[in-house]
Structures are given as structure tokens and as C-alpha cells.
Amino acid sequence: QVQLVASGGGLVQTGGSLRLSCAVSGRTFSSYAMGWFRQAPGKDPELAAAISWSGAIIYYLDSLKGRFTISRDNAKNTVYLAMHSLKPEDTATYYCNRASDWGKGTLVTVSS
Predict the structure, then answer these.
(1) Closest CA to 63 of 43, 33, 34
(2) What's the number of CA atoms in the CB half-sphere (13 Å) around residue 25?
(3) Among the listed residues 50, 62, 58, 56, the one whose alpha carbon sits nearest the alpha carbon of residue 89
(4) Which residues contact 21 (CB under 8 A, 6 or more apart)?
(5) What is the pLDDT of residues 55-76, one digit of tens each?
(6) Rg (CA), the chain
(7) Sign of the C-alpha dihedral, residues 63, 66, 67, 69?
(8) What order do you get walking across the sheet with 4-7 strand by strand?
């Protein structure tokens, strides 16, 4: 059974930074693209960033370009989301995703 464990969320002031990590169990991590979704209170989930299995193809939500960086370490079965210049509108629960598998999410709160 695949498990995705996200960590690194917390409370940060506007302009601050956080780095989220998602550790994935199982031997096939490097075969899959990975994504970070986020869901703000009262809003639909949205795909924040995604990375192909090799890291060669990366997607960002337009509003995150230049501030967020997704990366992965296939040797550690981990995907990261470095978040900089955080804004209150980035407040959300962030979930990592692999195909149909989801982690529990980690809450990011950005205070104004």
C-alpha cells in the first residue's frame, strides 16, 4: 500500500518562506509524476505544481510562477515544494499526489 506523508506546513508571515516535503513509500516512486494540490477554505482544490518522473517537465499554477519551486529526489522517494514570497492567498491545505494516491495534507497559513 502506497503512503504519502506530507510535512513542513505552518504559520508564516507575508513574504516568508516554507518548504514542504512529501515522503512516498513504495519502490516505484521514480516511475510516476508527482503533484502538489492545494485547497483554500471554501474553495475548490487546484493543482499548484507538478513534476514529471525525471524532473524534466514541470508545471506551475500561473500565480505561483517565480515564487514556488517543485523538485524531487528519487533516491529518497521525496518530492518538495519550496515556497517563497508567501502571500495570504497562499493559505491552504497542501496535498501531495501521485496518480490516484493522496497524502493527508499539510496546512500552510500566511498571516498578513
Answers:
(1) 43
(2) 7
(3) 62
(4) 6, 7, 8, 78, 79, 80
(5) 999 999 999 999 999 999 999 9
(6) 13
(7) positive
(8) 4-7, 18-24, 78-83, 68-73
Tell me the three-class secondary structure of the chain, residue by residue: CCCEEEECCEEEECCCCEEEEEEECCCCHHHCCEEEEEECCCCCCEEEEEECCCCCCEEECHHHCCCEEEEEECCCCEEEEEECCCCHHHCEEEEEEECCEECCCEEEEEEC
Q: Nearest-CA neighbor of 89 among 68, 58, 59?
A: 68
Overall size of the chain counted in residues: 112
Task: List pLDDT tens digits, range 5-58.
Answer: 999 999 999 999 999 999 999 768 888 999 999 999 999 999 999 999 999 999
**Distance, CA of 70 to CA of 81 (rounded, Å):** 5
C-alpha cell at 104: 493527508
For 3, phi then psi, to 5°, come to -125, 140
